[in-house]
What we know:
The structure is a homodimer.
Chain A: H1 3-9, H2 23-34, E1 45-50, H3 53-60, H4 67-70, E2 73-80, H5 85-98, H6 107-118, H7 122-146, E3 150-154, H8 159-165, E4 173-182, H9 201-204, E5 205-208
Helix pairs in contact in A: 2-7, 5-6
Amino acid sequence: MELIETLQWRYATKKYSSKKVADDKLERIITAINLSASSFGMQPYKILIIENPEVRKKLSAYSSNPQITEASHLLVFAVFDSIKQDTIKRYIELIAKERELPTESLKVFKERALNGLLLKSEDENLIWTTKQAYIALGTGLIAAAAEKVDATPMEGFDAGHFDELLGLKEKGLKSVVLLALGYRDEVNDSNARLKKVRWPKEDFVITIK
Amino acid sequence: MELIETLQWRYATKKYSSKKVADDKLERIITAINLSASSFGMQPYKILIIENPEVRKKLSAYSSNPQITEASHLLVFAVFDSIKQDTIKRYIELIAKERELPTESLKVFKERALNGLLLKSEDENLIWTTKQAYIALGTGLIAAAAEKVDATPMEGFDAGHFDELLGLKEKGLKSVVLLALGYRDEVNDSNARLKKVRWPKEDFVITIK
C-alpha cells in the first residue's frame, strides 16, 4: 500500500471489535516506533504495552476514552522525567559499542548533549521529550496503518494517575500520550464512515519562491 | 519499499548535493503531511516551503545548520499562535461542507473545541500546537524517505528571527521546527555511513501482561 493510501485509510477509531492484533504485527509497529528520529537520536522515552485487562480497567477510570479497555492493545508513550548524566553516558556507550568507536571519539557530541540537555528545567525537559515522543507517535500511526491495524491517538487522560498506576515515577518516566491499537468495529463505529477532513492545500501551504 | 526498510534507510542528512527534489515528489510529501493526525483533526499549523535562496541565506544567519541553505528545499512548520473563535468556526464550516452536514449537527463537537482550545494560555497553546506539528514532522520524515528523498529535522534555530524574516507574526503563526529536503552528498556526508543507533528493545519497551 502506498503511503498516501495508508494515510487515507487510517482514522481515529472510536469503537473496536474484540479481534486481537497478532504478535508479529505488534512487533513491527514497535520496531518502526523504535526507528523514529529524535533530537540527538536519543529517544528520551519508552513505550509501555499494556495488555493486562485489570490494569486497563484501572486506567480507564482516568480517561473518558473507551478505547483504553476496548482496543486490542494500549500503548503508553512515557518520557524520561529528566536527562541525567548517567542517561547521556549510557547513550554514548551504546553509540560507541554499535559503531565500534572509542568512547573518546564521541567527546564533542557528549559535550553538546550535556550542555544542551542537562541545563533544561523540569518543564523544558518535559516539553522537549514530549516533542520527541510525538514524532514517534506519528511513526506509530503510520506503522499501524501499514499493517492494516486500526489506531487511536489519545491525549485525554489524567497523566498523574496513569503514572501512579503504572509505577512510572519509580522508573523515571512520565506518560504523555496514548495509542490504542486493534480492529475497527465497522458496524458500530460511525467514525469509520466519515470523510476525512483536512485544510485545503491553499490554506495549509505557503510557498516562498 | 517496506516501512521498516524505509525507516532504516533514512538518517539526519548533514551534507546535501545540489540535486533538486522534483515537484511531484515534493507534492506527495506535502500531501502526506497534510493527512497527518491531530487533536480534534484541526491541524493547528501550516507548512512553509522556502525555495528562495535569498530568504534561505537570511534565515541561515539564525541557525548553525548549513542544511538551511544547502538542501534542495526547506520546510518550516509554523503553528497557529492562538486558536481563535474564528479558527474553530472556519474548521466547523469546512467539516460541514466536506461531509455534507448541517453546521448545527456539529454543535457538540464545536462546544468541545471551544472549551478545550479557547481556554488555553499562550504557552499552553504553543505546547499543544507544537505537539500536533511534531506528529506531522514524523509523517514528513517517512514521506520523504518513501520518495527516496533525504531529510533533516532541525530544532536548532532562532524562532523569533525566523518569524520576523518570514512575516509569520502578521499571519498569526510561529515557527517551531524545520525539515530540510534534498539528496545526500554521499561522498562528503560522513553521517551517511554511520550505523543507526537505537535503544535495544529490552530498554525501550515495557510490557505489562
